[in-house]
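User: Before I run my own analysis I want an independent prediction to cross-check against. Here's the chain; please return only the structure tokens and, at the end, one sentence I can use as a sanity check.
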Amino acid sequence: MRIILILLLLIGSVFADSPVDKFVQEDNVLVLKSDNFEDALKLDFVLVEFYAPWCGHCKALAPEFANAATKLRNEGSNIYLAKVDATQETELSERYDVQGYPTIKFFIKGTPIEYNGGREADQIVNWLLKKTGPAATTLTSYDEVHNFTLANPVTVVGFFSDLESADAKAYLDSAMELDEFTFGLVSDEEVMNRFNVTKDSVVLFKNFDEKRNDLLENINKDEIKKFIVQNSLPLVVEFNHQTAQKIFGGDVKAHNLLFISKSAAESENIIENFRKAAKHYKNKVLFVAINADVEDHERIMEYFGLKKTQLPELRLIKFEEDMVKFKPPTNDLLEESIKSFVDGVLDGTIKKHFLSQDLPEDWDKNPVKVLVSSNFESVALDPTKDVLVEFYAPWCGHCQQLEPTYNELGAKYESNENVVIAKMDATVNELENVKINSFPTIKLFKKDTNEAVDFNGDRKLEDLIKFVDSQGKEGSAPKPEEEDEEEEKAEDGAKKDEL
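Assistant: Structure tokens:
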């Protein structure tokens, strides 16, 4: 009878209701609405994504979010992941100040904090475990450490003979701040010896490239964080939604970009050459592969003036005050040629690259003259003329709206030998000394001095005429802020966000 009772209790526990059984679930992610949101907040820990069905970033996050939820569920965790369609549940969106998608908040016993972790499943899980448990897992045997290092693509283990030492405390402080990584802690001398650790050190284990990196000196919080961030990326980083922040948010501000179609037959050999070259520039230049087969990458290629038929191609960018681009002198993608290109950029022998269209044969046929990079200086900076230039983008709605008025303006001054009305597509033509921050940007380059005066008036024919006739005195005053907000951002700012 006693055995039967025990079996009944065990069976009862197996079939006991889970605290989340009452929620609709999709891939182990709770589906929340206004009528069940408060019930979800009764859970100890729940990570909630406020999303929009049409949002590209939300679509990219969805499988990672589901994988993280499944991993936690399989481990029997009391941390749950949930999602809210913010476009439908507007009251919840307003209550939790949802201003962009996705907005992710972590509720601890009903109290929200902002989620600032990564967008990959392992990063999400690691962040949550950090917020709900110890910063580092204590490991006491060789097998524990070995299995621990195999659980994620990147793991960090601190080996310290004295867990109360300043180095060990600095390591734990770093572990608390680097949410996307999994940290272990070892103090057993025998285990340290089996991993060839002879002194206090921080070891980064990874399933790619060198497999392991050791920090043996200067074990303080800043150096530990720098060491981990620099060594956790592969020699060649595949650009995607998940890696974008790591690439452009890191300390390395020079990036060698390989635009390549991964479906091309020679792609593997080229990427291997790229990887071999990357070994020589670790922590100096980040090597990034951008797959041209991905539709979302088309805008990035457009910014660099590249078409899929031209690939594979290299471009190196440096983040200074602006993003500066460099183009290799040849399209040879052997290891030594790639190294020669990078060395040339670093030592200054390869100059900045500016996009330019070919000069159309009929560039001066119409009243509004067409400028490209190659004829800009000779036309716009002609000291005998006042030259008005509209810097536009073909896709810009304001530019399209202005076009008929601007053509009328060109017709008015067509026979005036002292005035030129011109335009330049600033998305495919770049100038070293003229920076465009919004479209359309209209500048008057004054004769004699070549002083550039920005037009900030209403884009009506009469206002443009006054601006030209007054040599920029009328219409150059800054517009009110609310009007400025209507401008369309130039690619130079948008491209960095898109990258």
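Sanity check: The two ends are 68 Å apart (CA to CA).
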